Amino acid sequence: MSVTHYTACDSGRRDALLLGLGAAVRARRTELGFTLKALGERAQVSERFLVQLEGGSGNISVARLLDVADALGTSPSALLADASSAPPAIGRHVALVGLRGAGKSTIGARVAAELGVGFVELDALVAREAGMSLATIFEVHGESWFHRAERDALARLLAHERPAVISTGGSLVTHATTWSMLRGRALTVWLKASADDHWNRVVAQGDGRPMRGRPEAMTELKTLLRERRPLYAMAEAAIDTTSMSLEDAVEEVAQIARRASKHDTTGKGSSR
Question: Which residues, including other chains, have CB under 8 Å from residue 49's CB and lie 6 or more apart?
């Protein structure tokens, strides 16, 4: 067995364990009627940590797992035992698409926790596999290299047996092969928003780089949204988050995923 193959297998086993553990924690929390906030207060951990844990991306220590288990009235060994048998709430991957500022990461992480599956930011996955930041990737290798790496990383992710919620980069839809592969192997959901909303959300995140010293930035944003709208509209489902609260948007996407999973199981088709 080669070193590369061993590493891939080991990573898959680890991911499966974390996803199962997250599902087990969420199932126990739901059974007890605890909100994320209530469990966080009992276990002395943040809601953000619990979102990551229930989404399968939390790198939890043994001591922290003991705290969470105690708060849930169970034991680490019981949660780990449940982790191996906890079924996913959905039958296929859910991929969120849209321009930057659509809320893909924020909504996606919470949807994943709601469904008891993993959450993956595709851009972060590409950067992690490349061993460098996105900025460095573009500076050293260029945009074409990035999009090839994006396509390859997505293909490996979609081949994973256990479903996850995926936050994609805004430009993914402009690459026909990658966009077609994603639509064929995942439930795609377009998070729609107005140009003003995209702008305001990016600014609210503390990132003013796209606008700094560029008075034409808003015009370019509107043009980009107009040009990509027909591509985003190819998604299997869409929700307009313009006047939606975060909680409502999360629930809407989760319901779309559940309905699609039910339709897939009964052979009735997609969510549309």
Answer: 40, 58
**Digit-coded pLDDT (tens) for 64-73:** 999 999 999 9
**Does domain 3-83 fall into CATH 1.10.260.40?**
yes
Nearest alpha carbon to residue 96 among 210, 173, 208: 173
Of the candidates 79, 163, 66, the one whose C-alpha atom is nearest the C-alpha of residue 120 is 163
Confidence (pTM): 0.68
Stretch(es) of the chain classified as CATH 3.40.50.300: 93-266
Q: Has domain 93-266 been given CATH number 3.40.50.300?
A: yes
DSSP state at residue 189: E
Question: In the numeric block, which tokens belong to residue 56?
Answer: 């399968």
Q: In the chain, which segments carry CATH 1.10.260.40?
A: 3-83
Check if the beta carbon of residue 115 is closer than 8 Å to that of residue 92: no
